User: Fold this.
Amino acid sequence: MIVFGRLLQLVTFLLPAIVDSFYSDDRRMLFTHYMARHQPCSANCDERIFPHCTQSCKCDYDYPRVQRFCNPPPLPLFLNTCRLWYNQCPKYERYHYASQYIYSKAEKGKVLRM
Assistant:
């Protein structure tokens, strides 16, 4: 078991260098597509090891769960957490209804007068 763990660490450390030095652009693209099918773009996916794990890919991976959780958020306490996630992913900023929901619930229909 120890040997396998050490081998896995070594491969994980050397994988970016191997990909950069031996693969042409076409082969690198094929490698990226292959890894994208086998390694999801979760929050702990490292872009240095798996080139397909970009911030955009991570946003696409997390969006369904965040959408269910944040629209509307279960408690007003989670509103800032939802805002932080939406600020990291500007692609989904327009789908963020949480702040509108909380403000309308807190204000109970009051209109801001200037």
